[in-house]
Amino acid sequence: MWGRTVDTIFIGGGTPSLFSAEGMDRLLSEVRARLPLAPGVEITMEANPGAIEQAKFAEFRSTGINRLSIGLQSLNDDLLQRIGRVHSAREAYRAVEYAHNAGFERLNLDLMFALPNQTLPQALQDIENALALEPTHLSHYQMTIEPNTWFHKHPPTTPDDDVSWSMQSQCQEKLGDAGFEHYEVSAYAKPDQACRHNINYWQYGDYLGIGAGAHAKITDAAQQNITRTAVVKHPNDYLLLASTEQRYATRQVLTRNEVPFEFMMNALRLTEGFPTSLFFDHTGLPISTIDGTLQRAEAQGLLEYSIQSIRPTEQGRRFLNTLLEQFLPAE
Q1: How many whole angstroms separate alpha carbon 22 and alpha carbon 60?
Q2: What CATH number does domain 259-325 carry, 1.10.10.10, 1.10.10.1100, 2.130.10.10, 3.20.20.140?
Q3: 246-303 confidence digits (pLDDT tens)
Q4: Distance CA 22, CA 50 (A)
Q5: Do 187 and 198 touch, CB atoms closer than 8 A?
Q6: pTM of the entire structure?
Q7: How many CA atoms lie less than 13 Å away from 206 in the CB half-sphere?
Protein backbone atom coordinates (compact mmCIF):
# COMPACT_ATOMS: atom_id res chain seq x y z
CA MET A 1 0.00 0.00 0.00
CA TRP A 2 2.96 2.36 0.40
CA GLY A 3 2.63 5.44 -1.78
CA ARG A 4 -0.95 4.71 -2.83
CA THR A 5 -3.51 7.43 -2.13
CA VAL A 6 -6.54 6.62 -0.01
CA ASP A 7 -9.79 7.96 -1.51
CA THR A 8 -12.24 6.61 1.07
CA ILE A 9 -12.23 5.31 4.64
CA PHE A 10 -15.11 3.27 6.06
CA ILE A 11 -15.17 2.65 9.81
CA GLY A 12 -17.62 -0.21 10.07
CA GLY A 13 -19.17 -2.43 12.68
CA GLY A 14 -19.56 -3.84 15.20
CA THR A 15 -20.46 -0.46 16.57
CA PRO A 16 -17.59 2.00 16.05
CA SER A 17 -19.71 4.85 17.43
CA LEU A 18 -19.02 3.34 20.87
CA PHE A 19 -15.45 4.66 20.49
CA SER A 20 -14.66 7.89 22.26
CA ALA A 21 -14.14 10.88 19.96
CA GLU A 22 -10.54 10.98 21.20
CA GLY A 23 -10.05 7.35 20.22
CA MET A 24 -11.52 7.97 16.77
CA ASP A 25 -9.29 11.03 16.31
CA ARG A 26 -6.24 8.96 17.22
CA LEU A 27 -7.24 6.24 14.76
CA LEU A 28 -7.59 8.71 11.88
CA SER A 29 -4.38 10.51 12.84
CA GLU A 30 -2.48 7.20 12.68
CA VAL A 31 -3.92 6.51 9.22
CA ARG A 32 -2.92 9.99 8.01
CA ALA A 33 0.60 9.45 9.34
CA ARG A 34 1.03 6.33 7.21
CA LEU A 35 -0.85 6.90 3.96
CA PRO A 36 -1.66 9.97 1.85
CA LEU A 37 -5.35 10.87 1.86
CA ALA A 38 -6.92 12.32 -1.28
CA PRO A 39 -8.33 15.84 -1.13
CA GLY A 40 -11.99 15.54 -0.17
CA VAL A 41 -11.50 12.01 1.16
CA GLU A 42 -14.82 10.37 2.09
CA ILE A 43 -14.73 9.16 5.70
CA THR A 44 -17.81 7.18 6.78
CA MET A 45 -18.60 5.90 10.26
CA GLU A 46 -21.37 3.45 11.08
CA ALA A 47 -23.50 4.25 14.12
CA ASN A 48 -26.37 2.75 16.04
CA PRO A 49 -29.22 4.99 17.21
CA GLY A 50 -28.44 4.46 20.92
CA ALA A 51 -28.39 7.49 23.22
CA ILE A 52 -24.73 6.98 24.23
CA GLU A 53 -23.53 7.39 20.63
CA GLN A 54 -25.81 10.31 19.74
CA ALA A 55 -24.20 12.65 22.27
CA LYS A 56 -20.83 12.25 20.52
CA PHE A 57 -21.91 12.94 16.92
CA ALA A 58 -20.66 16.54 16.90
CA GLU A 59 -17.30 15.43 18.30
CA PHE A 60 -17.02 12.70 15.67
CA ARG A 61 -17.69 15.30 12.97
CA SER A 62 -14.81 17.42 14.30
CA THR A 63 -12.35 14.52 13.82
CA GLY A 64 -12.84 14.67 10.03
CA ILE A 65 -15.59 12.07 9.67
CA ASN A 66 -17.85 13.55 6.98
CA ARG A 67 -20.39 10.82 6.33
CA LEU A 68 -22.56 9.00 8.86
CA SER A 69 -24.43 5.73 8.37
CA ILE A 70 -27.11 5.01 10.97
CA GLY A 71 -28.56 1.49 11.29
CA LEU A 72 -32.25 2.22 11.85
CA GLN A 73 -33.52 -1.08 10.31
CA SER A 74 -37.11 0.10 11.00
CA LEU A 75 -39.01 3.03 12.48
CA ASN A 76 -41.73 0.80 13.90
CA ASP A 77 -41.32 -0.19 17.58
CA ASP A 78 -43.14 -3.50 17.16
CA LEU A 79 -40.94 -4.54 14.23
CA LEU A 80 -37.76 -3.42 16.01
CA GLN A 81 -38.69 -5.62 18.96
CA ARG A 82 -39.34 -8.59 16.68
CA ILE A 83 -35.82 -8.44 15.24
CA GLY A 84 -34.18 -7.96 18.62
CA ARG A 85 -33.03 -4.34 18.20
CA VAL A 86 -32.34 -2.59 21.50
CA HIS A 87 -33.19 0.94 20.31
CA SER A 88 -36.67 2.40 19.94
CA ALA A 89 -38.15 4.35 17.05
CA ARG A 90 -37.98 7.48 19.22
CA GLU A 91 -34.24 6.99 19.71
CA ALA A 92 -33.85 6.51 15.95
CA TYR A 93 -35.60 9.82 15.22
CA ARG A 94 -33.47 11.56 17.84
CA ALA A 95 -30.25 10.08 16.42
CA VAL A 96 -30.99 11.49 12.97
CA GLU A 97 -31.80 14.89 14.49
CA TYR A 98 -28.45 14.84 16.32
CA ALA A 99 -26.67 13.89 13.10
CA HIS A 100 -28.18 16.84 11.24
CA ASN A 101 -27.39 19.20 14.11
CA ALA A 102 -23.80 17.91 14.22
CA GLY A 103 -23.31 19.05 10.62
CA PHE A 104 -23.40 15.72 8.80
CA GLU A 105 -24.50 16.78 5.33
CA ARG A 106 -24.00 13.25 4.02
CA LEU A 107 -26.24 10.84 5.88
CA ASN A 108 -27.16 7.24 5.12
CA LEU A 109 -30.00 5.37 6.79
CA ASP A 110 -30.16 1.55 6.79
CA LEU A 111 -33.67 0.13 6.45
CA MET A 112 -34.77 -3.49 6.12
CA PHE A 113 -37.93 -4.97 4.66
CA ALA A 114 -39.61 -8.41 4.77
CA LEU A 115 -39.23 -8.41 8.55
CA PRO A 116 -41.09 -11.00 10.68
CA ASN A 117 -44.84 -10.60 10.11
CA GLN A 118 -44.31 -7.24 8.39
CA THR A 119 -47.14 -6.08 6.13
CA LEU A 120 -46.87 -4.13 2.89
CA PRO A 121 -48.41 -0.97 4.43
CA GLN A 122 -45.84 -1.16 7.26
CA ALA A 123 -42.95 -1.42 4.78
CA LEU A 124 -44.25 1.57 2.82
CA GLN A 125 -44.76 3.57 6.02
CA ASP A 126 -41.14 2.84 7.03
CA ILE A 127 -39.94 4.31 3.73
CA GLU A 128 -42.13 7.40 4.09
CA ASN A 129 -40.94 7.95 7.66
CA ALA A 130 -37.29 7.52 6.65
CA LEU A 131 -37.64 9.97 3.75
CA ALA A 132 -39.13 12.54 6.11
CA LEU A 133 -35.80 12.45 8.00
CA GLU A 134 -34.08 13.91 4.90
CA PRO A 135 -31.20 11.47 4.38
CA THR A 136 -28.96 11.85 1.32
CA HIS A 137 -28.58 8.08 0.94
CA LEU A 138 -30.71 5.10 1.85
CA SER A 139 -29.75 1.42 2.01
CA HIS A 140 -32.91 -0.67 1.62
CA TYR A 141 -32.46 -4.42 1.76
CA GLN A 142 -34.38 -7.57 2.49
CA MET A 143 -33.80 -9.27 5.81
CA THR A 144 -31.86 -12.52 5.41
CA ILE A 145 -31.41 -15.28 7.97
CA GLU A 146 -27.70 -15.74 8.70
CA PRO A 147 -26.19 -19.03 9.95
CA ASN A 148 -25.43 -19.37 13.67
CA THR A 149 -28.01 -16.77 14.70
CA TRP A 150 -31.11 -16.90 16.87
CA PHE A 151 -33.37 -16.65 13.82
CA HIS A 152 -31.49 -19.50 12.14
CA LYS A 153 -32.29 -21.73 15.09
CA HIS A 154 -35.81 -20.32 15.53
CA PRO A 155 -36.99 -19.22 12.05
CA PRO A 156 -39.59 -16.43 12.20
CA THR A 157 -42.61 -16.10 9.92
CA THR A 158 -41.61 -13.68 7.16
CA PRO A 159 -43.53 -12.39 4.12
CA ASP A 160 -43.63 -14.75 1.14
CA ASP A 161 -41.81 -14.02 -2.12
CA ASP A 162 -44.75 -12.23 -3.75
CA VAL A 163 -45.30 -9.90 -0.80
CA SER A 164 -41.54 -9.29 -0.46
CA TRP A 165 -41.34 -8.36 -4.14
CA SER A 166 -44.30 -5.99 -3.74
CA MET A 167 -42.49 -4.37 -0.79
CA GLN A 168 -39.31 -3.98 -2.80
CA SER A 169 -40.88 -2.68 -6.00
CA GLN A 170 -43.32 -0.28 -4.34
CA CYS A 171 -40.66 1.08 -1.99
CA GLN A 172 -38.37 1.58 -4.99
CA GLU A 173 -41.12 3.61 -6.64
CA LYS A 174 -41.47 5.83 -3.57
CA LEU A 175 -37.71 6.36 -3.43
CA GLY A 176 -37.64 7.26 -7.11
CA ASP A 177 -40.47 9.74 -6.67
CA ALA A 178 -38.46 11.35 -3.84
CA GLY A 179 -35.48 11.93 -6.15
CA PHE A 180 -33.33 8.98 -5.10
CA GLU A 181 -31.36 7.18 -7.82
CA HIS A 182 -31.28 3.39 -7.57
CA TYR A 183 -27.60 2.90 -8.37
CA GLU A 184 -26.90 -0.50 -6.78
CA VAL A 185 -28.98 -3.54 -5.78
CA SER A 186 -29.89 -2.15 -2.35
CA ALA A 187 -28.53 1.42 -2.49
CA TYR A 188 -30.35 4.65 -3.32
CA ALA A 189 -28.86 8.14 -3.36
CA LYS A 190 -29.69 11.75 -4.02
CA PRO A 191 -27.73 13.24 -6.97
CA ASP A 192 -23.95 13.12 -6.31
CA GLN A 193 -24.49 11.37 -2.96
CA ALA A 194 -23.66 7.77 -3.86
CA CYS A 195 -21.29 6.06 -1.42
CA ARG A 196 -17.86 6.27 -3.07
CA HIS A 197 -16.47 3.59 -0.78
CA ASN A 198 -19.06 1.02 -1.83
CA ILE A 199 -18.78 1.97 -5.50
CA ASN A 200 -15.10 1.06 -5.25
CA TYR A 201 -16.16 -2.42 -4.07
CA TRP A 202 -18.67 -2.84 -6.87
CA GLN A 203 -16.14 -1.69 -9.49
CA TYR A 204 -13.66 -4.28 -8.19
CA GLY A 205 -11.24 -1.69 -6.86
CA ASP A 206 -8.62 -2.41 -4.25
CA TYR A 207 -9.21 -1.99 -0.53
CA LEU A 208 -7.21 -2.54 2.63
CA GLY A 209 -8.92 -4.19 5.61
CA ILE A 210 -7.74 -3.40 9.13
CA GLY A 211 -9.01 -5.02 12.32
CA ALA A 212 -10.33 -8.34 13.57
CA GLY A 213 -12.16 -10.21 10.79
CA ALA A 214 -11.33 -7.58 8.15
CA HIS A 215 -11.08 -8.52 4.47
CA ALA A 216 -8.85 -6.96 1.81
CA LYS A 217 -8.24 -7.10 -1.93
CA ILE A 218 -4.91 -5.79 -3.19
CA THR A 219 -3.56 -5.78 -6.74
CA ASP A 220 0.20 -6.10 -7.16
CA ALA A 221 0.91 -4.45 -10.51
CA ALA A 222 4.52 -5.64 -10.57
CA GLN A 223 3.56 -9.29 -10.02
CA GLN A 224 0.36 -9.01 -12.08
CA ASN A 225 -1.75 -10.72 -9.45
CA ILE A 226 -4.65 -10.05 -7.09
CA THR A 227 -4.49 -11.20 -3.47
CA ARG A 228 -7.42 -11.58 -1.09
CA THR A 229 -6.81 -11.72 2.65
CA ALA A 230 -8.97 -12.19 5.74
CA VAL A 231 -7.70 -11.31 9.21
CA VAL A 232 -8.36 -13.62 12.18
CA LYS A 233 -11.81 -12.97 13.64
CA HIS A 234 -11.38 -13.32 17.39
CA PRO A 235 -10.38 -9.97 18.94
CA ASN A 236 -7.92 -11.53 21.42
CA ASP A 237 -6.20 -13.47 18.62
CA TYR A 238 -6.05 -10.30 16.55
CA LEU A 239 -4.41 -8.31 19.36
CA LEU A 240 -1.79 -11.01 19.80
CA LEU A 241 -1.05 -11.39 16.08
CA ALA A 242 -1.75 -7.95 14.58
CA SER A 243 1.90 -7.11 13.92
CA THR A 244 2.75 -10.53 12.45
CA GLU A 245 1.95 -12.41 9.25
CA GLN A 246 -0.06 -14.84 11.39
CA ARG A 247 -2.83 -12.23 11.61
CA TYR A 248 -4.17 -13.61 8.32
CA ALA A 249 -6.71 -16.41 8.67
CA THR A 250 -6.64 -16.80 4.87
CA ARG A 251 -4.47 -15.44 2.09
CA GLN A 252 -5.34 -16.32 -1.50
CA VAL A 253 -3.78 -15.29 -4.79
CA LEU A 254 -6.61 -15.47 -7.33
CA THR A 255 -6.17 -17.61 -10.42
CA ARG A 256 -6.93 -16.36 -13.93
CA ASN A 257 -10.13 -18.45 -13.93
CA GLU A 258 -11.40 -17.00 -10.64
CA VAL A 259 -11.02 -13.30 -11.48
CA PRO A 260 -13.86 -12.90 -14.05
CA PHE A 261 -16.51 -14.27 -11.67
CA GLU A 262 -15.22 -12.12 -8.80
CA PHE A 263 -15.32 -9.02 -10.99
CA MET A 264 -18.84 -9.71 -12.25
CA MET A 265 -20.14 -10.66 -8.79
CA ASN A 266 -19.41 -7.07 -7.78
CA ALA A 267 -19.84 -4.98 -10.94
CA LEU A 268 -23.21 -6.42 -11.97
CA ARG A 269 -24.73 -5.12 -8.74
CA LEU A 270 -24.54 -1.63 -10.26
CA THR A 271 -27.82 -0.62 -11.91
CA GLU A 272 -26.09 1.17 -14.78
CA GLY A 273 -23.41 -1.48 -15.10
CA PHE A 274 -19.88 -0.41 -15.96
CA PRO A 275 -17.68 0.70 -18.87
CA THR A 276 -16.48 -2.37 -20.77
CA SER A 277 -12.89 -1.13 -20.46
CA LEU A 278 -13.12 -1.43 -16.64
CA PHE A 279 -12.89 -5.21 -16.93
CA PHE A 280 -9.35 -5.02 -18.31
CA ASP A 281 -8.37 -2.11 -16.06
CA HIS A 282 -9.26 -3.98 -12.86
CA THR A 283 -8.50 -7.59 -13.82
CA GLY A 284 -5.68 -7.34 -16.35
CA LEU A 285 -7.65 -9.69 -18.64
CA PRO A 286 -9.06 -8.89 -22.09
CA ILE A 287 -12.86 -8.79 -22.37
CA SER A 288 -12.57 -11.61 -24.93
CA THR A 289 -11.93 -13.90 -21.93
CA ILE A 290 -15.66 -13.83 -21.16
CA ASP A 291 -17.06 -12.87 -24.56
CA GLY A 292 -18.98 -16.12 -25.03
CA THR A 293 -20.56 -15.91 -21.57
CA LEU A 294 -21.59 -12.29 -22.17
CA GLN A 295 -23.29 -13.22 -25.43
CA ARG A 296 -25.19 -16.11 -23.80
CA ALA A 297 -26.38 -13.91 -20.94
CA GLU A 298 -27.47 -11.24 -23.43
CA ALA A 299 -29.41 -13.82 -25.45
CA GLN A 300 -31.24 -14.79 -22.23
CA GLY A 301 -32.25 -11.17 -21.66
CA LEU A 302 -30.13 -10.84 -18.49
CA LEU A 303 -27.69 -8.15 -19.62
CA GLU A 304 -26.88 -5.66 -22.38
CA TYR A 305 -23.38 -5.87 -23.87
CA SER A 306 -21.63 -3.42 -26.18
CA ILE A 307 -18.13 -2.09 -26.87
CA GLN A 308 -18.91 0.85 -24.58
CA SER A 309 -20.65 -0.73 -21.60
CA ILE A 310 -22.06 -3.82 -19.90
CA ARG A 311 -25.16 -3.53 -17.75
CA PRO A 312 -27.73 -5.90 -16.24
CA THR A 313 -31.27 -5.63 -17.59
CA GLU A 314 -34.20 -5.25 -15.21
CA GLN A 315 -34.67 -9.02 -15.44
CA GLY A 316 -30.96 -9.53 -14.78
CA ARG A 317 -31.12 -7.38 -11.66
CA ARG A 318 -34.15 -9.25 -10.38
CA PHE A 319 -32.52 -12.64 -11.03
CA LEU A 320 -28.97 -11.57 -10.24
CA ASN A 321 -27.85 -14.96 -8.90
CA THR A 322 -28.92 -16.62 -12.15
CA LEU A 323 -26.92 -14.05 -14.10
CA LEU A 324 -23.82 -14.43 -11.91
CA GLU A 325 -23.86 -18.22 -12.14
CA GLN A 326 -23.04 -17.86 -15.84
CA PHE A 327 -19.58 -16.55 -14.91
CA LEU A 328 -18.63 -19.26 -12.42
CA PRO A 329 -15.26 -20.82 -13.30
CA ALA A 330 -15.35 -24.26 -14.86
CA GLU A 331 -14.58 -27.13 -12.49
Answers
A1: 9
A2: 1.10.10.10
A3: 999 999 999 989 999 999 999 999 999 999 999 999 998 999 999 999 999 999 999 9
A4: 19
A5: yes
A6: 0.92
A7: 16
